[in-house]
Amino acid sequence: MLSDAPRKHKTIHQRVAATLRDRIAKGIYPEDEMMPTELSLSAEFDVSRHTMREALKTLVLEGLIERSPGRGTVISSRSALEGAWGIKSLEELIGEFVASDVTVIYKGPVQAKKHMHAAKVFGLRRTDTLFQLKRVMGHNQAPAVVNTLYTLMKYARRLPEEMIGYKPLIALIEEYCKVQPTRARQVASAMGADSTAAKLLGVRVGTPLLVLRRIFLNSENEPLQLTELICRPDRYQQSVDFMRANSLDRRNGR
Q: Could you tell me if residue 3 is inside a domain?
């Protein structure tokens, strides 16, 4: 049950939206099916109709749901990977791929000496061990992104094994390890597809690909997760909105 009392880190509608987003990701609300009514959701979460409308508006902007008068709210069948994905907040970045098909290639410990670029981010020695998750994401059996994630073993050991790969890893770390990401740093670049990426993404060797590298950090500036995404530009686009801080504060009622 949620209260309408303001919180320091998230507004009420942001927390409601996060819960609904998680339900969509888990298939609790399947694609092309109706969501519960705004009135019933307001009662379930114990929030005002206005708060629930704001939460649903967030999911509309993310492309996860569609709303129309007389029809109600329907879970969108289109994946965020099919078009431009607008990102305005850390929450939206974390939930970026909730609507995508996922094939897990590997999840488990790896030797730091074989992944020194990741070991350097976490300040590990060559003899240390990292946790790696590697997967391919797309929509309707059309691969769009090769996603490789790294985190510390102390976090990975506390996560439910069956959820790893199918729910955002950083969200699992926050929930089960009680550490909160407060910012993410992203660097974008490009590469020609090597033989591995070409095979996984269904392109020719040398095909131009978009590369995104992200580091999620906590309030102490400690890295929680390193994410590397190798993307087919024809199947994945990302748009980022830059907004004035005081504008965001007014929008969130601060």
A: yes
What are residue 212's DSSP bridge partners?
A: 188, 229
Burial class (CB in 10 A: 0-12, 13-18, 19+), 226: buried
Which of 85-99, 154-168, 186-200, 232-246 is the least confident region? Answer: 85-99
- Give the CATH number of the domain where residue 107 resides: 3.40.1410.10
66-97 per-position pLDDT tens digit: 887 777 898 876 544 554 445 556 665 666 66
**Distance of alpha carbon 189 from alpha carbon 29, whole angstroms:** 35
Domain span holding position 146:
101-234
Check: CB of residue 213 under 8 Å from CB of residue 121.
no
Beta-sheet pairing, 129-139 with 208-217: unpaired
pLDDT per residue as tens digits for the range 164-182? 998 889 999 999 999 999 9
Q: 248 is written with which tokens?
A: 């965001």
